[in-house]
Specification:
It comes from Archangium lansingense. By secondary structure, this protein is α/β, with parallel strands linked by helices. Helix content is about 50%, strand content about 10%. The longest helix has about 30 residues.
């Protein structure tokens, strides 16, 4: 089939022709430079002049190549920046495009023609390989997970005297004589408590991948790993209770098969870089005491009375309350009670002032001054509105106003303490993973199951908050425990791993 560049309309064929022409042009450029060098040497020109003339020839040829094959643009080139000048920020990418994948390993694959295709369709001549000339493209691929059966053969040694026999060490085991590796147990735990895959679902997935196993076996591995990591869960809880400010919250976590599954709740304590969970049969003051122990800092919570009850009967912490919960009450009734709009807008002003503070560098004194001079004025207006609003006590608006009034002391403590955040949203976000897990698992089947769930959610969600790979953390923590070492917590993990 003949090929006429002037009349060809097939985009793919034109692209291939352009690539061939560019490669041929590069070859000719190199040839012209070489011939010019030989000519000038034959004419006896000195080395310095020869070098300058060659540079000019290369520049001209490079310019012609750019005009033919470079991108078309009428923009003037940007002036070179001085060393002290800051580079201009790149314009944000418009629309959806390929995302950089800097963390993925890159595997280079070279594709070559089959022997029958190495023949010119026009003249029948053999096609020669163009060294270093490729058409490149990236492709994100997946390497399928596979299970293998490692047969460990531990070599035995003996002395000629017959008095000593030694055997080489094997890999560390979760359980003496166990058949499944530490990595296998970590894989199952991460799939269940981070990716929310119930064990039965994992069994079906593994069967497709060639492994025959049952859910009880998977549970045995997860439970053994939890026993190994139990000291880390306790240490994380103890470390969190030494913080100055914590957020507290709770959500349902049913215990399947119990007399009253709905009584069971997961309690959470959260800091910016850590969260710990405990699952208890209820939301009483005694459950709050078991969770908070001797905590003596500032605790931000919603309106659950158990915290107030414990605070009034031996608790040494200071209660503060969440403006997001208050705002939520007014939003829920705004459609039927337009008066609530003013309260919502005033609370919005409090958040706007907090965003104003975040523009500059962190400075507790500056934040406290902003709250004292600006936020306090907004609080005073909100208090005046609440005292003057007309609403029936039993109405949704009346209940929202009562909710805010009952917690007014805790809601306004942020005005005098820069450490107190405006809301408890960070703790609510920390509960999202556990809530998604509840939707998939429906809860736990045994009391031990609640303990194991609390442990893994605590360690995995804390690793996420610290920016540590959760799977890698579990593996390194388990190996440290098997070596008899102190288990590093997620926020200590990087320093321990590097050291």
């Amino acid at each position: 089939m003949s090929f006429q560049l002037e009349t060809e309309k097939d985009v793919e064929r034109l692209r291939q022709a352009a690539l061939l022409l560019e490669a041929e042009n590069r070859r000719l450029v190199a040839r012209v430079v070489e011939l010019t060098r030989k000519l000038m040497s034959a004419q006896g020109q000195d080395a310095e002049e020869l070098q300058l003339r060659l540079q000019e020839v290369e520049r001209q040829l490079a310019q012609r190549t750019a005009e033919l094959f470079g991108p078309s643009s009428e923009k003037r080139p940007r002036p070179r920046q001085d060393e002290g000048d800051k580079p201009e920020e790149a314009a944000p990418q418009q629309g959806h495009g390929p995302r950089p994948q800097s963390t993925l390993p890159t595997l280079e694959v070279v594709h070559t023609l089959e022997e029958p295709d190495k023949q010119c369709p026009k003249c029948g001549g053999a096609l020669a390989e163009m060294q270093g000339c490729y058409e490149e493209a990236e492709e994100v691929d997946v390497v399928e997970r596979r299970f293998v059966l490692h047969r460990h053969k531990r070599q035995k040694y003996r002395c000629g005297c017959g008095g000593c026999v030694e055997t080489a060490l094997g890999p560390p085991k979760l359980q003496p004589g166990g058949r499944y590796s530490v990595d296998f147990a970590v894989e199952v735990a991460v799939a269940k408590y981070l990716d929310h895959l119930p064990l039965e679902r994992q069994v079906r997935i593994m069967a497709r991948e060639g492994l025959t196993v049952d859910s009880q076996t998977l549970w045995d591995q997860v439970e053994a790993l939890a026993r190994l990591l139990a000291p880390a869960h306790e240490a994380l809880h103890a470390a969190l209770l030494t913080r100055d400010v914590l957020g507290g919250d709770e959500t349902r976590w049913p215990l399947l098969g119990s007399k009253n599954p709905k009584r069971w709740h997961a309690w959470a304590l959260c800091a910016p870089d850590a969260v710990v969970y405990r699952i208890a049969e209820g939301r009483t003051a005694e459950d709050a005491r078991a969770m908070l122990k001797d905590f003596s800092g500032i605790l931000m919570v919603d309106g659950l009375g158990s915290y107030d009850s414990y605070a009034g009967h031996g608790g040494r912490f200071t209660l503060v309350h969440c403006w997001a919960h208050v705002r939520r009450k007014f939003v829920e009734c705004e459609e039927k009670f337009p008066q609530a709009t003013e309260a919502i807008e005033l609370i919005g002003e409090l958040y706007a002032l907090e965003r104003e503070y975040k523009v500059g560098p962190p400075d507790a004194a500056r934040l406290l001054e902003l709250r004292q001079h600006k936020s306090r004025a907004v609080i005073d207006r909100l208090h005046q509105w609440a005292r003057g609003v007309q609403a029936l006590p039993g109405s949704a608006l009346g209940q929202a106003v009562k909710y805010m009034s009952n917690m007014w002391t805790g809601l306004t403590r942020f005005l005098s303490d820069a450490r107190v955040p405006l809301d408890n949203n960070a703790t609510e976000r920390a509960l999202r993973g556990l809530v998604v897990g509840r939707k998939n698992h429906y809860g736990s089947r045994s009391r031990r199951g609640t303990e194991v769930a609390a442990l893994f959610y605590s360690l995995l969600e804390t690793a996420k908050l610290c920016g540590v790979d959760p799977k890698r953390y579990l593996r390194e923590a388990a190996l440290a425990a098997l070596r008899g070492e102190e288990i590093p917590l997620p926020h200590q993990f990087e320093a321990v791993a590097v050291g």
